[in-house]
Specification:
single chain, 126 residues, 20% helix
Length: 126
């Protein structure tokens, strides 16, 4: 009897994990995918940094790649939250920045969190 209950619980957990995984994959809006030109005001110098951000699904995970002219940096896979925001981390030369993507009124917006200092990123579809 104990073995039957354990097998049943294991199967239920597997079904739950698979269903949650499938829901997370469907949660990414198609309008997020693709190439976006971006501009960020450099907080140190005030200069505007520009480049291309590509959002794509790779290996069953959605990631963003920021091309900064001297090579690119990939985010960690996006994490979805109930508030409609998509979170990831971006490692730039050993410094980890939090990145948040949100769709507001049909437009994609992005912010980087540099240790509590929020940097808005302007995005335009390529």
């Amino acid at each position: 009897m104990k073995t039957t209950i354990r097998v049943f619980c294991t199967i239920c957990c597997l079904v739950l994990c698979v269903s949650l995984s499938a829901q997370e994959k469907k949660a990414f809006p198609k309008e997020m995918m693709g190439k976006w030109s971006y501009s960020i005001e450099n907080p140190e110098s005030g200069e505007v940094m520009k480049g291309i951000c590509t959002i794509a699904q790779k290996d069953d995970a959605t990631k963003a790649t920021f091309d900064m002219g001297q090579g690119g940096a990939d985010t960690t896979p996006f994490r979805v939250n109930d508030n409609g925001k998509f979170y990831a981390d971006l490692d730039i030369q050993g410094y980890v920045l939090g990145v948040t993507f949100t769709i507001v009124e049909g437009k994609l917006s992005c912010e980087m969190d540099a240790g509590g200092f929020i940097i808005p990123i302007e995005l335009k579809k390529e």
